[in-house]
């Protein structure tokens, strides 16, 4: 038999879905190296490889055969060739701007365990898509709002979620598009550095985000009476502020977000919350060009009457804090723990924490590559974001299922 790769689903799957990988037609106990490759929208290459030995029958099923030492991972990891993808260019983040076009995954099987790999025995291509058939992608230019709405298939009403990204600017649609596949009407909301929004804002206004809430609640396919918020980093920080100040926020999932305002002054009506001060003396230089900034934010819980704290006790919705224990940007586990103590002391019980070891500041949906070192959003220098490959891959899968369960329960 000629070796061949068997995939399930065969030609196309959603990016956050598992992919079953097997090789058939090998010799008994034949040693092979499997390699996955994927180019992002900028043409940058991501790769992972693993060493395997076929069974006595010449079959190699990644769900049953452990990877041998020497590759990107080892052990029984059916999805290892996807979660272990790493950029060939240092510190490169896999962004997905155009969710209407799938990523193309290349799979190859090589003879032996050599470096470089031996003869090519089999290859296959597979599309990793962001939109299920029937999901609508609707650009939104409503009043000041600049966003994209993703609607699940059908004419029903769906639980509504607003997805707010971190402090990098632009419009990120990857999370919102994937959530729509799971039955949520999801609005990916830009808030600066996009179209006619401010390029370099000096302050942020909650009224803008309030417009987005009202837009969702007035949409005929969004099931009320409230909406959910999914925020990451600064977006999580904004989501917590929205929960404190705005009506009709039923549930907030905060990915490494703080209860204290950060980066820019935050205004609502006649109130302004100043950003948490930064102490640049606390920056640690790891090597000539990489920083550890985990201690640069002043601790808002140690300063009485800190003006940067968001009055989260006013929030009526449910709060889910998802934190990485290895977050080197904001010490999010400490902040979430203190936020919950703060709420508890004020008689609140509307919160829970999910805390993940080996997980850094960046928490993306499943199978996005680990991003352990990146551009610091405030200092604009290379900095440690944290995270460890295998632990992070498990946290991604578990957190993603918990986010969906949380919104299904409360929306």
Automatic annotation (TrEMBL):
Domain called BAAT/Acyl-CoA thioester hydrolase C-terminal: residue spans: 205-411
Any GO BP: fatty acid metabolic process
Active site, UniProt feature: 233 (charge relay system), 327 (charge relay system), 361 (charge relay system)
Keywords noted in UniProt: Fatty acid metabolism, Lipid metabolism
Entry superkingdom: Eukaryota
Domain Acyl-CoA thioester hydrolase/bile acid-CoA amino acid N-acetyltransferase: 16-141
SUPFAM superfamilies documented for this protein: alpha/beta-Hydrolases
Keyword GTP-binding: no
Family statement drawn from the similarity comment of this UniProt entry: Belongs to the C/M/P thioester hydrolase family.
Provenance organism: Oceanites oceanicus (Wilson's storm petrel)
GO molecular-function terms, A-Z: fatty acyl-CoA hydrolase activity
Higher taxonomy: Eukaryota, Metazoa, Chordata, Craniata, Vertebrata
Protein name: ACOT5 thioesterase
Keyword flag Lipid metabolism: yes
InterPro entries in the cross-refs: AB_hydrolase_fold, Acyl-CoA_thioEstase_long-chain, BAAT_C, Thio_Ohase/aa_AcTrfase, Thio_Ohase/BAAT_N
